[in-house]
Structure formats: structure tokens, C-alpha cells
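Dear colleague,

As promised, here are the two records you asked about, laid out in our usual form so they can be pasted straight into your sheet.

NAME FIELD: protein one
SEQUENCE, THEN STRUCTURE:
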Amino acid sequence: MKVAPSVLTANFTSLKDELKSVSQADYIHLDIMDGHFVPNLSFGPAIAKSIEENTHLPLDVHLMVTDPLQWVPKFVFPQTKFITIHIESNHVQEAVLAIQKEKVGVGLALKPKTPIRTIIPYLHDVQLILVMTVEPGFGGQSFMIEMMDKVRDLVKIRKENGLHFAIEIDGGVNDETIHYAKEAGVDIVVAGSYLFNLEHREQGIEGLR
């Protein structure tokens, strides 16, 4: 299991120390919100660049925005590993091509109420599928265990079609819900509130792994 701490719930007044405290993770997850696609705002490219400058970890960028095409180029940094857009956003095909053009891994995310069938046409073009296990927009929500059915479906589709995309979940991940993720076949977990509320985050990351 790979772990991607979400800095959304980190203390931004001590960003360097916060990033250092999770430096043994696999990725740093950046939740980018436009206040339109989801009813919340997070931070923009300047803060994202500052985060990159203070970590050696690859960046897992999650664009919770209505118009990803205008945002994709702004979050392409040397350490950007994935840029994930929502299947529910505008101009999905064009945004996928824009990410590919930047030589960055393409991710597609689904809100809890969005069925798997909506992403089927894109599965040959993506390196990551992000299954939201809470409604996107705010940290600290409860894990939606029924979303593990989507994960199981994706594991089956991936195997039957010889595909290689990673399956990620985001929302409500902690030392209890991680067991459901493992059982369903998740590859990467995003953890925010759980990790950043811990005193010993290194132990928290190892526990999730």
C-alpha cells in the first residue's frame, strides 16, 4: 500500500516542518479546489510550487475544478507525478490530452454518486483512477465503505483487460478503514486529517502501509 498525505489539513504556518514530518511517504497529495466545482477553496500554483520546493516526494495533484484545461499547465512541476481531473468536469478528453502532452501521469477521479461506466472510455489513457470515499471539498469526513464496490469493479476491469492503472482512494482513511481498502484492492491511499492529527506521523504512515 502506498501512502499520499494530503496537505489540506497541514499547518501552513509551519509548512516546511509539516512536510518533513511525512517525508517517508510515497507521494504528497495536493487538493486543488476552485470554489465552484466544490464549495471550498484551497490553494493555487504558487503554494503548490512552494510545497514542491520543500519536499523530495513526487506530487499527486488532484484538480477539483470545473475547467481543468485552464489549470493543468499551472501544476506541471518537475516533481509532478500525476494530475487527476474529475470525470464530472468540463472538456475531459481535451484535459486528458493536455496532461499527456506535459508527459505527466493522467488521473481520473469519480465522486461517490458517479458510476464506474463513465470512465470506461478513458481507461486505456490513464495511469490512475481516484475513487472518492467522501464527497469532495472538505477534510475530516467519514469513510463511505460502499465505495469499495467501485474499487473491486476496477480491479476486475483492470485484470480482464490487461491494464495497469493504479487505484487510489481519498477521504476518511485511517487505521481502521485502511483494512477495507486493502481487502478491496486499493493501491494508494490519500490520508489527511488522520495523519496530520497524529503526533508520530512516521508511525502513522507505516501503519497504513
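NAME FIELD: protein two
SEQUENCE, THEN STRUCTURE:
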Amino acid sequence: MLLPVRQHFPHRTLPDVSGAVRAELEASGLAQTLRPGARVAIGAGSRGISNIAEIVRAVVDYFTAHGMKPFLFPAMGSHGAGTPEGQASVLAHYGIDEANMGCPVATTFDVVTVGRTELGIEAYAGKDAWASDGIFLVSRVKWHTSFAGNIESGVAKMLAIGLGKLAGAKSVHAHARTHGMEAAIRSVAKLLIGTGKILGGLGILEDAYHATAQVSVLRAAGLLEREEELLRTTKSWMVRIPAPRVDVLIIDEIGKNISGTGMDLKIVNRATTGQYNPWPEEPKIERIFVRDLSPLSYGNAVGIGAADVIHDRLLPKVDVNAGRVNAVTSGSLALVRTPLHFPSDRECLELAAATVGKFDPAEVTVAWIRNTLELGRLALSENLRGEIGKNPELEILGPAFEMEFDENGNLEGMPCL
């Protein structure tokens, strides 16, 4: 039996997202540092960021209103199968195209080498962006799924990895195996900022409901220090699966649009190498069952390797080449391995539950979520009622329910989602 549960978190939603972006940019004075008619390259990424089209359009409008000539470019490493066409399609799916943005979108993969950092890392930048008069990046600032530091996901990472296209992503990930990801990101970001070509970026913070909660302009001078502050803030808002230990975690979907690793590895407590429960401060997860692949992942099934069992329905949706490009670029081969798979949800669940070391099925603890971005509503097994009662942020939405299976042994769906 499962309980439908809601997690209550503070609502931090900005009432006027575009207005907040405009106010931040006007206060920054960035336009005053450029001549009229200057070409400004605006980089946008591939994650499922709330209001991303509205935010990017507000950035475009700011530079246009001040007499500049902005254009957009994808700054997303290996997403979109690592091709110009794929990345243009990803941006367009988020509403970021010439028609909606009112400016050109440059999607070529040509890069230039900018120099070598003090760690010996070759830094790259997209040729179109580097030919501009200034580069401005739009990125969400949040914890990274697979490493911990004072700089994780954000503008600095987009500078080091996204700006340099596939070449930059490969270079940074390769050197990260020696120096660590944070050190590699800092090294490349510092070199790029030092050229004077980087104007800065817009850091987006989202609350626990995945709503835009804060936007902040990070000027090139002091960018890393300001991003550290923003990361501390967003980490303090981080949500978790509300149980100290879950035997079986059911995830309805994974995808590159949800997390760079398909599922947030800190939420599910896995490492890129497949290690179980490497994050001591996070709930322990014994088995992970993944039911489907998000269509917005464009066949990139990175993250399936973190699951213990998957449904067969994923297999025909997997673009092996997209996963290969991602795996080679990041060096995380384990994340694209295909785990055990079965043609029904029932078989997958039975295998997962039988391998957690409990002889009485009634003792197996279960959590069921849509994906690792949406944790406001979930289902928890009734044997976790005691834990639920200890947490004032949790509300039981109704009576316990049985998992309902159709004639093929597949789940009918979760009532609370």
C-alpha cells in the first residue's frame, strides 16, 4: 500500500520574471560597456529551465533596446546528439528560435582555441560567439548531480563546457579526471574571463517547485565569487526524497532535459561510476526502477546505467549514438549501460523488491516519483507513515492505495500525480 504525499516548501516564485530580468540587466550597466551596434552572443543551454524562453527573450530585448545586435547560440556540450541540427532542435523545442526571440540563432559547431590554462587545459569557444563583441550566458545555478564544490552547475560551467561546444566539453571532462571537475571549470572560466570577451551571465535560481525564484546578473569581474553565493542559496532550497532509506525507488521518467545525468544523482544517491549511496547526507536508495525516457531527451538515455532495472518500453526510444556521444564526452561510460529489463512493470518491481535483503514484502519501503525535478507530489509506502509523521513539511493527501496493474502487468498510474 502506498500513501499519496505532498511536500510543502516555501513558494519563492517571481511575480514578473521578465521584469526582474530587465531590472537586473539595467542595474548591471552592461550595455554602457559596449558601443552602439555591437554584436552580442547570448548562450542558452539544454536543461528544462522554467520560463527559459521568456528569460532569454528578455535578455535579447535588453541588448536590442540599447542599440546592440544580439544573436543566440546553443551552449550545451553534447546534448542534441552533439550535432548543430540536434542542438537547434533542442532550443526550438524550448521556444528559443529566431521567430520567438527576434534575433538570429547561430548553431555551427566550429570552434577556436583560446589558450591553455595554468592546469594545461586547452580552452575552446564557439567560432561565431568568439567573433562577437561580447558574450553573455544564461544559465541556471544549482548543485551538480555528480560532484560537490563551491562552484557546480551554472554560468562558470557553461563558460568552460558549453561555450566550447563538443571540443570544450571533451577537454574539460578529460582533465577533470586528473584535477577534479570544479578545478577544471574554474581554470577554464578564469582564462576566458581574463580575455575581456566575456560580459558575464544571468544566473537563474529555482525554488523547490521548479519555479523561477531569483535572477541575478553576474558581471565578468567577480563572476566566480558571486556564483558561489548563489550556489549556497540554491543548495539551501534543495529538496530530497523524504525518507532516510528507500528500498525501491520508482521513477516514471529520466531524460537529459531533467538532468545532465538523466536523473539527479544526488537525489537518487548514485555516482557516475555506478557506486551506491556515495552522498552520506542524502537518503539511502537500495534499488532504482526506471519506467520510461522523456521525449524531450531526444533519445539520449544517459542515466539508465544508474538504474538497477528498466522497463522494455525504454529500449526502442534509445538513440544509441546520442548516448555514445554523451558518454565519450563526459567519460561516464557506466551511465549508458543497459541494466536488466523486463516487458512489464510488475516483473521489474518484483526483481527490485526481491534483492533488498528483506524476507517480508510488507517491510520493503517504496517511493514513487515522476522524475527527479518534480518532488512536490510523490507516493510513499505505508510502512513509512511514521517517518512521514515526523516531518512537518509532509501532508498525506488521501487514503493508502494499492498499485494497480493492467492486463499486461503495467502500472495504471499514480493517483497523486
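A couple of things worth noting about protein two: The two ends are 16 Å apart (CA to CA). The chain has two domains: 2-9+240-396, 34-236.

Best,
R.
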